[in-house]
């Protein structure tokens, strides 16, 4: 397959949303072209709007079709590349996996993304960080309870699911805000287990073509 025929992932090394998709791609051993979008560049984001009108990463281009939003991309990948399934067959477990993923991707991560923090810091210096910490802590507290109820080796039982893809980026963000994570032993245990899997290592921000951009 030529490079022109490869799927394209518009990504940014430290984007939680892009990170989740990179992990899914690595787990499914899908070869793709990585295109960096500098999220601190208005010009780059405006250019991205020709691909994704929201001007956000990730955007996944396959066969001329653009798919946006990390969980939509991941479910597309799961449907088109069913090897290494990321959604449990059991409908209850599948619902729990999605619920954990949505808790992070809709209930926690958007409240500390770059755009939100920049706006809050304009209103009051340092307020963005305080705001982010509050909602990360609240989210981690809920996540710890859910994982205690449903986890085995991984977030949902004994195989990696879509829920697990949301955990490393969240912990990475929590560490960037210097949060004490000792109150979340189940979250930490699963995160440490995931950190040993080659696909999760490959998807880590430190291992991307644009690692360190705007660091």
From TrEMBL:
Gene Ontology BP term (one): L-tyrosine catabolic process
Pathway(s) served: Amino-acid degradation; L-phenylalanine degradation; acetoacetate and fumarate from L-phenylalanine: step 5/6
Pfam families: GST_C_3, GST_N_2
Record-annotated GST N-terminal domain positions: 5-85
Keywords: Phenylalanine catabolism, Tyrosine catabolism
Keyword Cell membrane: no
PROSITE patterns cross-referenced by the UniProt entry: GLUTAREDOXIN_2 (PS51354), GST_CTER (PS50405), GST_NTER (PS50404)
EC main group: isomerase
Start and end residues of each GST C-terminal domain: 90-213
EC identifiers of the protein: 5.2.1.2
GO cellular component, one term: mitochondrion
GO molecular function, one term: identical protein binding
Cofactor: glutathione
Catalytic activity of the protein: 4-maleylacetoacetate = 4-fumarylacetoacetate
PANTHER family for the chain: MALEYLACETOACETATE ISOMERASE
Family classification: Belongs to the GST superfamily. Zeta family.
Protein's name according to its UniProt entry: maleylacetoacetate isomerase
Gene that produces this protein: gst-42
């Amino acid at each position: 397959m030529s490079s022109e025929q490869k799927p394209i992932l518009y990504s940014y090394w430290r984007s939680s949303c892009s990170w989740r998709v990179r992990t899914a791609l690595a787990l499914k051993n899908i070869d793709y072209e990585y295109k960096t979008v500098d999220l601190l560049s208005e010009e780059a984001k405006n250019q991205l709007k020709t691909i994704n009108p929201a001007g956000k990463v990730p955007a996944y281009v396959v066969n001329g079709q653009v798919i946006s939003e990390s969980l939509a991309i991941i479910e597309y990948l799961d449907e088109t590349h069913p090897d290494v399934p990321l959604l449990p067959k059991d409908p209850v477990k599948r619902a729990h996996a999605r619920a954990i993923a949505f808790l992070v991707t809709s209930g926690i991560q958007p409240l500390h993304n770059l755009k939100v923090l920049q706006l809050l810091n304009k209103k009051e210096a340092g307020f963005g960080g305080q705001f982010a910490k509050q909602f990360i802590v609240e989210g981690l507290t809920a996540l710890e309870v859910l994982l205690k109820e449903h986890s085995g080796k991984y977030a949902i039982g004994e195989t990696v699911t879509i829920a697990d893809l949301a955990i490393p980026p969240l912990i990475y963000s929590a560490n960037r805000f210097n949060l004490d994570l000792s109150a979340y032993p189940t979250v930490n245990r699963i995160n440490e287990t995931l950190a040993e899997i080659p696909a999760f290592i490959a998807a880590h921000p430190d291992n991307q073509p644009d690692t360190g951009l705007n660091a």
